[in-house]
Amino acid sequence: MKTNKFVVAGDDHLQDECFVREAEFSDLDFLEKLECTAFPEHRRSSRRSIRNSLLSDNQIVLVVVKSNGGGCNLPVGAAILILYKRTIRIYSIAVCAEYRMKGYGESLLSRIIEKALQEGYAKLSLEADESNPALIDWYHKFGFDVTHYLQNYYGLGESACRMTLVPSGDESFAARIVVVVEDDTRDCLPMPGIAICSARDYLAEKKYSCSSRYHVLNFCKSYKTHSIGYYVSLIASARNHRITPSVMSVKDVSDRVIAQSIFEEMEDFAAGRLKNYPGDTFETTVILGITPKGSYPALARKLFSLFELPFFNITLERRERWKLKRISPVSFKTVQDDYASVLSDALLSFCEKKRYFRTRLKNYQYDLAILVNPAEKTPPSCPDALKKFRKAAEKVGFFVEFITKQDHRRLCEFDALFIRETTAIESHTYAMARHAYTEGLVVVDDPWSILLCSNKVYLYERLANAGIPQPKGYVLTRKQCSPAFLATLPLPLVLKLPESSFSQGVFLVKDTCELKKRVMQLFADSALVIAQEFMVSDYDWRIGIMDNMPLFACKYFMARGHWQIYNWQSADSSDFVGKSETIPVDQVPAFVLKAALKATSLIGNGLYGVDVKEVNGKAYVIEVNDNPNIDEGVEDLLLGDELYQRIMQSLFNRIEIERLQKRSLL
After folding, report:
1. Do domains 5-165 and 472-533 have the same CATH topology?
2. Distance in angstroms (rounded) separating the CA atoms of residues 12 and 7
3. Which fold has domain 472-533?
4. Closest to 128 measured CA to CA, from 170, 103, 94, 101
5. DSSP readout, 322-370?
6. pLDDT attached to residue 612
7. How much is the pLDDT for 393?
8. 182 near 147, Cβ under 8 Å?
9. Relative to the CA of 330, which of 78, 201, 313, 415 has its CA 20 to 30 Å away?
C-alpha cells in the first residue's frame, strides 16, 4: 500500500528568498537523499518510485528552492502530488532537517493550494500521522479538516488521519475576471477592481497560460479572423478559460442563416416581451446584457446569454413572428464614448453572475446527409469510399442522401450531417456544420472540432498546456519579429499559417534570410504565425480516432524528393503525394497511440486523424485533423467494410443518445 509521509514543521516567516518549481531528473539524487533523511525506512519511496513519479502523466513533483543570490540555488524540500480528475492528493511532503521552522514548508504547501485553485481542482487531500498533533494543527492553519481516521495506516500501531481542503477560499467571481483590450486602451476601464491587460500580455504572460481560473472578457477592437482579438478568444478557449465572446459566437453572428437559427430558440420569449411594442421594427444595443435605457431588461439578458457578445446592436422585425433582421458587434471604444455609465452598471451586474447557459436546441429524426464536393481535387474520401459509407449507413438504418453546399437550406430535413468535404472556418463547411447543429442534427465533423482543429495556434497552445510532446515551437507576432530576435531562432524551422491543411500554408526555411522574408509574407495574412523545429522522418503516423477509440493506423510517407506528404509544387501527379502503409492498431507502438488519444481528448469525441512523428522512441504530435482521409484501399485496407460501419454506427448511436440528453453549445 502506498503511504503518505509528512515531515514539515513550524509556520515561521521565511527568512530567505525561495521559489517552488517542478522537479527535474537532475533532482533525483536530492529527492532520494531527502527520503532517506526525512522518513523511517518503511515509509520511504525508493529511487525507482521517485523516478516513476517524475515520469508519470498523473503525478507531479515540486521542489522548494532556497535562493542565495548570484544564481546559487539550493533545493531544501519537496512534495509528490498525485493528480486525479478533480482532486490533488499530496502523497508526500518534506523539508530538510536543517531548514525546518524557516517557512519553506509553508511556501511549498501554499504553492500546492495555489495550483489547485488556479487549475480548477475541487479538493486537496492528504494523510497525516495521528501521533503528531503539531503537524495536524499546522495543516489546520491552512484550512485542512480531518475527515477520517485510518487505523494502522502506516503499519501496526501507526495510524493516520485523512485531511481535506476545498481550495475555493473566499475568491469572488469578479476576482477571476480579466478584461483584455488593445494596447492603447488599457487604462480606460470605468470600474475599478477588475483586472485588465493588453492582448499582447494575455497571449505572452505565463500566469495566464498556466492557469484555468480566469473568465476573459475580450474587448479588443476586432474579432475578424486572424486579428489579435480573434486569437485572444481562440487561445483563451485552448487554456480552458471562460471567454466572452468565443470564436464560435463571433462566427455565429457573422452568418445571418446561423444567427436566425439561434434566435429561433427564443422567438416565443421575444413575442411575449414585445407583445405591446408599438412598431414592427425593434432596435437596441446590448451591453453585457443591459440596454442603454434599461428597457426590456429580461429580453436583453436573454439575447446576451444566447449570442454571448460583449456589446452588439440587434434589429428584430415583426412579420407573422419576430425575426432577426440584423446583428453586429459594437466596438469597446464606441461603448466607452457613448455609454460609459451603462458600461459600469453592466460590468457590476456581470460580476454578480457566474455563468450563462443557452437553452436546449431542437431535435429531429433519422435521415443522413453526407456533404460532398464533386469538384474537389483532394477530397477526404474518394468516390468508392463514399459508396461504402452509403452501404454501411443503410445497413445500420439510415436513409442516405449526398448533398452539396447548395443544399444548406435543406439541412433541417435530416437527423445527421456527415461531412466528407475538406473543412475550413471560412468556408461553407463550417457554416453548414454550425447551422446543422443549431437545428438539432448530430454532426460529424461538429463545428467546434472544425474550429479548433483548423487553427494551428490553438492546437499548439492546447497541446502545450496539456504537456503533450510536440516539436518545439514559437508563436510569433509581428512586433516580436525583429531581425535580432529572428537571428536567435534555431534553423531549419517549419513556418505555418494558423489555418492550413493538406500541407498548404506550411513552409520550410533553412536560413535567416529566408526566414525573414517568409515571416513577413505570412504576417500579411495573419496576426500570428507558428514556427516549429523541423523534425526529420521518413513517414508520419496517422491514427484515426472516433469516440476516443483508435479506428485505424497508417504510415504516410513523404512525397518523393520532398519533405512533406503532399508536394503542391510538383507538376508530376506521381510525385504529388507519398505512399502509405496501413498497420494493425495493435502493432502501433503504445506511446504513439497514447499521444494520439490524449491529443484528441482535448478536442472532443468526434472523428479525427492525429499526425504523429516517431523520433528516437518518442512520439511528437504534429497536429490533430478533423475530417481525416478515409479512402478505399488505404485507411480501410485492414478493416474493410467494418471501418465504414463503425463510423455509421457511431452516428446512429449518437442520435439515440441525443433523445435522452439535453444539448448545449460550446
Report:
1. no
2. 15
3. Dna Ligase; domain 1 (3.30.1490)
4. 94
5. EEEEEEEE--HHHHHHH-HHHHHHHHHHHHT-----PPPPP---SEEEE
6. 94
7. 92
8. no
9. 201
User: In degrees, to the nearest 5, what angle opens at C-alpha 6 toward C-alphas 5 and 8?
Assistant: 160
Distance from chain centroid for Cα 38: 40
Nearest one of 538, 565, 575, 576 to 625, comparing CA atoms: 565
Give the pLDDT score at 78.
95
CA distance 460 to 471: 9
Q: With CA atoms as reference, report the closest residue to 534 among 474, 444, 452.
A: 474
Grid-cell match 522512441, residue found: 617
Closest CA to 309 of 233, 249, 235, 226: 249
For residue 549, the model assigns a pLDDT of 95
CA distance 409 to 540: 39
> What does the block give as the cell for 106?
509553508
CA angle, residues 631, 635, 636, in degrees to nearest 5: 85
Alpha-carbon distance of 448 to 247, in angstroms, equals 10
Asked if residues 67 and 98 have their Cβ atoms less than 8 Å apart, the reply is no
Tell me: the pLDDT tens digits for 163-176? 998 876 545 566 67
Return all residues near 592 (Cβ < 8 A) that are at least 6 apart: 541, 543, 612, 614, 619
Q: What angle do CA 34, 37, 38 make, to 5 degrees?
A: 75
Q: What share of the chain is helix, strand, coil (3-state, %, to 5)?
A: 35, 25, 35
How many helices and strands (H and E) does the chain possess? 21, 28
Name the one residue in this structure whose C-alpha cell is 521565511. Answer: 14
pLDDT of residue 118: 72
Residue 599, C-beta contacts closer than 8 angstroms, at least 6 positions apart: 463, 468, 610, 621, 624
**CA Rg, the chain, in Å?**
28
Backbone angles phi, psi at 652, to 5 degrees: -60, -45
Q: What are phi and psi of 475, to 5 degrees?
A: -95, 115
Please tell me the pTM assigned to this model: 0.59
Alpha helix ranges (H) inside 494-541? 512-523
Task: Give the domain ranges of the chain.
Answer: 5-165, 472-533
Task: Please provide residue 473's backbone torsions phi and psi, each rounded to the nearest 5 degrees.
Answer: -135, 170
pLDDT at 71: 63
SS3 at position 112: helix
Q: Within the chain, which residues score under 50 in pLDDT?
A: 1-6, 8-15, 170, 354-364, 502, 662-666
Sort strands 158-165 and 145-155 into parallel, antiparallel or unpaired.
antiparallel
Count CB atoms within 10 A of the CB of residue 640: 11
